[in-house]
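REQUEST ID: PR-0412
SUBMITTED BY: lab tech R.K.
PRIORITY: routine
TASK: structure prediction, single protein chain
INPUT:
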Amino acid sequence: MSLSTLTKEEATTLHKKLDAEIKEHDRHYYIENTPIISDAAYDALRRKLEKLESLYPNLKTGSSATQTLGSAPQKGFGKVSHTSPMLSLANAFNEKEISEFLERVNRFLGLPSDNFPEMMAEVKIDGLSSVLRYENGHFFLGATRGDGQTGENVTENIRTLSEIPKQLLPSLEGKYPPLFEVRGEVYMDHSSFQMLNQEREQNAEAPFANPRNAAAGSLRQLDSTITAQRHLRFFAYAFEDLTPQSSFVSPKSQSEVLDLLRKLEFPVNPLSKIIHKKEDLWQYYENLKDHRFKLPYDIDGVVFKINMQDLQNRLGDVARSPRWAIAYKFPSQQAKTYLEDIGIQVGRTGVLTPVAHLTPITIGGVVVSRASLHNEMDIHRKDIRKGDTVLIERAGDVIPQVVQAILSERPSTSEIFLMPDLCPECGSRVIQEEGFAAYRCMGGVFCPAQATEKLKHFVSRNAFDIEGLGRKHIDLFYKKELVKTPADIFTLKERNSQLEFPLETWEGWGSLSVQNLFDAIDKKRIISLERFLYALGIPHVGEATAKLLASHYKTFQNFQEEMMHAEQIQSESYQELTHLDGIGEIMAKALIEFMNDPHTLTLIDALIGKKEYHTPLITVLDFKENALETKTIFFKKTIVFTGTLTHMTRAEAKMIAEKLGAKVMSAVSPKTDFLVEGKDAGSKATVARQLGVHILSEEEWLSFSKKSA
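STATUS: complete
OUTPUT:
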């Protein structure tokens, strides 16, 4: 059935299903590092949800996009805050998806659909994203991408890379600003990878699965002399002037960026090329796909970027990736193996996910023993059974999934797979909600799997980020009934001294490791509002939505009180919540139900010291505005756009407003500060005039916004 022909009820049901599936896969990929579907399958889910929301705007939520990038900085390295986020690239797997990317660019910029902006094509190195900082020509800091906001300080290890200039030549003085940053990819070429694995085998050590893993492991060595022996290499692809009030003339295009990097003697991949017409994109891709195995290093696709910097700035970023670039991934690799069993994994929301347990097989240099089966519907559609010989695919050269069963090799005793009636973790009843593919355990907080997964989410890198309290520790502490709720984490030190067998006496623990854990917990007793909202695990609320709520409500007390009042659908609090741009009825309902649930109230009381709990275990900070935003006349102001804008698209106008610290709402109310009126404005303009809202023409908005910026 076409999405456009769905009834309102059918669209709502499908939206809820897709949103839940994407959130579950986000958890597997970004938090557990155990993805269960391919890049292509995940992107297909996202695209379907985005299309559904475009057809039914009232269903739109602010949490449908992936918000978390990379992995948290590892223990043992100092942390480095990135000057600007190191984002991930959106993926495409065919020509149609590249064409759709170009259409989105044109639509955002308000250009004709057949316009072709000049592009820069680059190879996508399969390595480790890294950043280098220079002051007065001297290299002084190197870091990994980490989670996109914070990376690992690997300066001494970066110094061992012979290709990276440690001091720019005197003859180059004046060609770079006093303080700048270079971003690129650390990688290991094939010959160095083969030599390293030969050495490891000779020393009875396990070989690395592929060059990327080898590069990542080598760059993260605590002993830089080991890194020096690994012969790592580097390709630069980005340059950023970090000098305050710099007079340096920055490059006006990506091609100029690469030219500047070459002049400064940074290694730049020689296969980059400016593309002037659409047909040449396909030729560039096909040529590299056919010849990639002849290269001395691994690539897993190509990257297409809008070449001109001014267009990149206008396009900006979405929560997880730049709008002006996309990765065109190479086809996946496949192999056959035996499906030993179909296991069940229970997530923090109670969703049961089937997982294939395979006879280990090597695909593209990586050993695969588990693969995605998605859900029961997917298993039945592909007719996959225990005991089958199956075709496994690493889509995008990364994530394994079961593609199909080889029916000619199926044993006669095979049986059709059925989801269990009872939860394998707690024995509670399992139900399939009407209209949904997923099965859910009804055990709630009484299900150990759900309880532990909620705890793991609570301490994860984008929530409380408690070092040393990993997944295995949570499982162990929960099993020993030492940590059953998030509040138990912050009373662990006091309770440990009262135990008959304190942590110091446990196998694998000692006084130092226990003290390190307690110190790590104490360091996290103060948390930002947006991180706390994310840590609570509110359904449908990702990092972007958590920040949206934090920036609007400012304090946790205010947020909690407003959610209490919002239980009444006709209340001003409910209207205010649903008028937030990105918060629809489904999101609002989930927020209100969660924040008024007795279990949630008990948890919050325990953490922040209300009611019978007199001593706060944690402090939730009020929302902190961006320092740059506070300088604008639109800071903390509420803006509504109406009518047709002629100088920019509505999406671009919204992005600019948010950068200036404004809140963009979808409806006019007495709290609206500005209404920007385009051509053919309708009822919103009428209501704004009746309420005495300050109305700006599009030209006035542009003038004010430029002055504010």
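NOTES: Residues 29-35, 63-74 have pLDDT under 50 and may be disordered.
REVIEWED BY: pending
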